Amino acid sequence: SFFHTVLENSGHCGSMVDNNLRITNWNRKLGCKCQYKHIVDWCGCSPNDFKPSDFHRFQLDAYLFGPFPQGTPGLNSYWENVYDEPDGVASLSDTLLTYYHSFTRMGLVRAAASLQGNPNDHSCRYFPMGHPVSVHLYFHLDQFQGYLVKHHATNLATSKLEIMETWVAPKKNFELTTPPGSTFSRLQFAEVSFIYLLLGGFPVR
User: Fold this and answer.
1) Could you say which of 54, 130, 145, 162 would form a disulfide bridge with 138 (CB–CB 3.0 to 4.6 Å)?
2) For the chain, what percent of residues have pLDDT higher than 90?
3) Which cofactors are reported in the record for this sequence (predicted)?
């Protein structure tokens, strides 16, 4: 009821569908007693709060048509925006800003490396400009997969400012004791790197 009241008194009041097709978790187990019980099934009951165990109640499509088929794009993956240019760099801590700038520079270095050391080829050589434009996190099966950082860079071949994207993802490194055939061949030391660049910067069209 709170959200309905707020919507009706906001600038979105003209776009709100004004009917009773709203999901409510009525507490019927406590019993519903009033003179209109033969007309409505919620009479005399107070609604419960929604809890994680009730989330399936929100899936109207799944209730009507069954679960999505396997292989449906985006079924188990999602993007989370953690920074956008209109937010302003003041919304980022110094640590995060340093990370994001590092990621962009790594992407530009990776792009230049694709030229195989040709000093006369500037087609993939860029100079970083300004702060990141946006940062998104990618999750698959609720597991973090990496960062997508959008940023500005000057193309050294054309001297034009371009918008680039750099994709970075975590990589774990494990070291086993040697020789592996000894009695102590089990894992004794694990080293985890923070970020590994999978794909360098590339222009956004």
Assistant:
1) 145
2) 27
3) a divalent metal cation
- Cβ proximity of 164 and 183 under 8 Å: no
User: pLDDT tens digits for 94-125?
Assistant: 999 999 999 999 988 888 887 766 777 767 78
Which residues of the chain fall below pLDDT 50? 195-205
pTM: 0.54
What six digits make up the tokens of 44? 């005399």
